[in-house]
């Protein structure tokens, strides 16, 4: 006798049902009932994840952040490999394969590679990180691209900015990493965020020139003061087509702060910090320009510079909170005290997705000051002008 089973595709445990025997003629059933077990064969669904493209200055650490889309309730392994399918070669990044892990209740995992610093003026180069998770017959794969920015020529960076409607202008500042002997140019254009072109700001399309011998240039975006009580809006300034230089960041956000409302929100500021390697941690202080009418929160995450996690510091991400009536809070990042004689190194704490206040500055840099000295000693021979002395060389 066969009993049809329904394959419901639901993740569940084994289940049972009972078959009872009754109204038997000319026989006695032994036993009068039997139990059947339906063995579950639906594997838990594979967790989904995402990874974003990154940019890194040549010689720095390329750190990819893998974000979990689904909640993580158990330890999940992901495998990765570098694919040299762009313009980068094995001389530009140290090819590698390996694994990373999502711990229970975590939302991110990190994969970090060191890039090589050559002395050649060249175009920016790219490689791909391929990440795969498998569970049974299920497979989830994503790719992300890393752009290695050549630092043997100037590197252009641009910072986020903000201004109130009545200020009349959003003032964007472009920096180059070094003085160069010829003019550096880059195209710049506005791209609408939540702000509307022609209603909240006047569109700008221009070519910016940073003259030979200079390291800064500016782009001003006119703000339209509409006298309307509304949410604050944003517009992006996008950079492209650099000449004689590379791009560290290709866009920046300008926040147009509404000042027509009777409630004026404060601004969040954050300052750069410098710590000795032996200090064990770096503390970033987030400050409000004034008390806020309600609680303030902002997302933060560490990003590598010439320092990398976990070799030089421990990656951190999360939300920082400033309670109503308070004006500051801190984010602490553990620093690794190694014994390697090396240059000072840097990493960045980036802020985003703020609420209850505006970002006056979206990131700050921590410089880890190397405090390791060589053990080299020298002895001045007896009979010299200064006599016998021991000396230690840093």
Description:
This protein is mostly beta strands. Among the domains are: 155-257, CalX-beta domain (Immunoglobulin-like), CATH 2.60.40; 267-369, CalX-beta domain (Immunoglobulin-like), CATH 2.60.40. Helix content is 0%, strand content 49%. It has no helices and 30 strands. The strands form eight sheets. A five-stranded mixed β-sheet has the order 4-10-9-6-7, with no helix packed on it. It has a five-stranded mixed β-sheet with strand order 12-19-17-14-15, with no helix packed on it. Strand 9 (125-135) and strand 10 (138-149) form a beta hairpin. The chain is globular. The protein starts with 14 loop residues before the first strand and ends with a strand. The model is unreliable at 375-394 (pLDDT under 50).
Task: Spell out the key features of this protein.
mainly beta, five-stranded mixed beta sheet, Immunoglobulin-like, 49% strand, 394 residues, disordered C terminus, globular, single chain
Instruction: Report low-confidence residues grouped into runs of 5 or more.
Output: 375-394
Which CATH class of the domain at 155-257 applies here? Mainly Beta
Query: What's the pLDDT, averaged over the residues?
Result: 83
Approximately what portion of the residues adopt beta-strand conformation? over 45%
Main pleated-sheet profile:
5 strands, mixed
The percent range for helix content is: under 10%
Count of helical regions: 0
- Rounded to the nearest angstrom, the distance between the terminal CA atoms is 87 Å
Calculate Rg over CA atoms. Answer: 30 Å
Biggest sheet, strands in spatial order? 4-10-9-6-7
Structure classification:
mainly beta
Q: If you consult CATH, what is the topology of the domain at 155-257?
A: Immunoglobulin-like
């Amino acid at each position: 006798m066969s009993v049809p089973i329904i394959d419901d595709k639901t993740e569940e445990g084994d289940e049972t049902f009972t078959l009872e025997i009754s109204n038997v003629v000319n026989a006695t059933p032994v036993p009068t009932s039997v139990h059947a077990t339906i063995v579950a064969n639906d594997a838990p669904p594979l967790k989904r994840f995402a990874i974003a493209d990154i940019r890194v200055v040549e010689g720095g650490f390329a750190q990819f952040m893998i974000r979990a889309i689904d909640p993580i309730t158990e330890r999940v392994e992901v495998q990765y490999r570098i694919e040299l399918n762009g313009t980068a070669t094995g001389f530009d990044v140290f090819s590698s394969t390996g694994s990373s892990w999502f711990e229970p209740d975590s939302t991110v995992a990190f994969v970090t590679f060191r890039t090589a610093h050559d002395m050649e003026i060249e175009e920016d180069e790219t490689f791909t990180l391929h990440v795969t998770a498998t569970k049974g017959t299920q497979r989830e794969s994503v790719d992300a691209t890393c752009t290695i920015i050549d630092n043997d020529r100037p590197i252009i960076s641009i910072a986020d900015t903000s201004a109130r409607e009545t200020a009349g202008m959003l003032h964007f500042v472009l920096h180059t990493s070094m003085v160069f002997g010829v003019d550096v140019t880059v195209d710049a254009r506005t791209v609408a965020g939540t702000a509307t072109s022609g209603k909240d700001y006047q569109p700008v399309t221009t070519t910016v020139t940073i003259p030979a011998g200079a390291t800064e240039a500016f782009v001003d975006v006119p703000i339209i003061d509409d006298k309307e009580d509304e949410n604050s809006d944003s517009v992006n300034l996008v950079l492209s087509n650099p000449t004689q230089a590379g791009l560290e960041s290709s866009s920046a956000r300008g926040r147009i702060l509404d000042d027509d409302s009777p409630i004026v929100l404060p601004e969040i500021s954050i300052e750069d910090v410098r710590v000795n390697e032996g200090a064990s941690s770096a503390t970033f202080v987030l400050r409000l320009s004034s008390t806020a009418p309600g609680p303030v929160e902002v997302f933060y995450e560490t990003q590598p510079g010439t320092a990398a996690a976990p070799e030089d510091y421990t990656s951190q991400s999360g939300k920082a909170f400033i309670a109503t009536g308070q004006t500051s809070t801190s984010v602490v990042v553990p620093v690794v005290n190694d014994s390697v004689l090396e240059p000072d190194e840097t990493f960045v704490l980036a802020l985003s997705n703020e609420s209850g206040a505006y970002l006056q500055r979206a990131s700050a840099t921590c410089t880890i000051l190397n405090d390791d000295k060589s053990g080299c000693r020298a002895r001045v021979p007896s009979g010299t002008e200064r006599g016998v002395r021991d000396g230690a060389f840093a």
